[in-house]
Amino acid sequence: xxxxxxxxxxxxxxxxxxxxxxxxxxxxxxxxxxxxxxxxxxxxxxxxxxxxxxxxxxxxxxxxxxxxxxxxxxxxxxxxxxxxxxxxxxxxxxxxxxxxxxxxxxxxxxxxxxxxxxxxxxxxxxxxxxxxxxxxxxxxxxxxxxxxxxxxxxxxxxxxxxxxxxxxxxxxxxxxxxxxxxxxxxxxxxxxxxxxxxxxxxxxxxxxxxxxxxxxxxxxxxxxxxxxxxxxxxxxxxxxxxxxxxxxxxxxxxxxxxxxxxxxxxxxxxxxxxxxxxxxxxxxx
Length: 285
What we know:
The protein is an alpha/beta fold. It has helices spanning 12-24, 28-40, 52-56, 254-259; strands at residues 47-50, 65-68, 74-75, 88-91, 97-98, 111-114, 118-121, 134-137, 139-142, 155-158, 164-165, 178-180, 187-188, 201-205, 224-228, 246-249, 268-271. It has a domain at 44-198: Alpha-Beta Horseshoe (Leucine-rich repeat, LRR (right-handed beta-alpha superhelix)). It is 13% helix and 21% strand. The chain has a seven-stranded parallel sheet with strand order 8-10-12-14-15-16-17.
């Protein structure tokens, strides 16, 4: 049985150390592959390397590409708020915390590169980043209004440490179509996805199996739903299946869901092992 991650603020540092230790034990081939991946995700061309000296002098990046210095373990409150020059930022695995409003109003920020696990994206950190198109990374907690008003955001893919998404985290992300979560998600506050009216593809972790269908309006737009359940269960009342949508369930329960009169109203019911994101048990690949 898979162990869930229940993260408390006092244990985050310890868990990061453990994760780092596991990486060091990988084979030489694995290390080479990781190095190549990191190298491939490094910025090229004209890059602003943001350091502690820039922070002390309140110097804002004046280039489209920004790399956070490896010596900075956090991004402070409102540190880059209102910066309209920045379009792409690289955040290394040493960063453990992005504070309140850190990138608020960075209207031209299009892409965030996260090199490693990130314990906290705090309240309003990316509010109003209206050009941001994708969030992909192993983020543990996303705070209140974390990505509020990111109207160009289309895809959110979070890693296996994802634990808590707070109220308003993706409020008003009207073009968000894809939401991929891990089965380890344990805290999801009401209103986290308010105003996300374009959702087509999303995961439902086991702890939210009776709530999450009702979090997104316009169920006629649903095309793929990944039900990360640990058992067969009756269809919740807030679920409105449509024939254009494929339901993915852990392989062991496919026949039970297919035989159910209500669940069979979906266009197709497939095993999670056939999805690009999940194993036969419903764990992230």
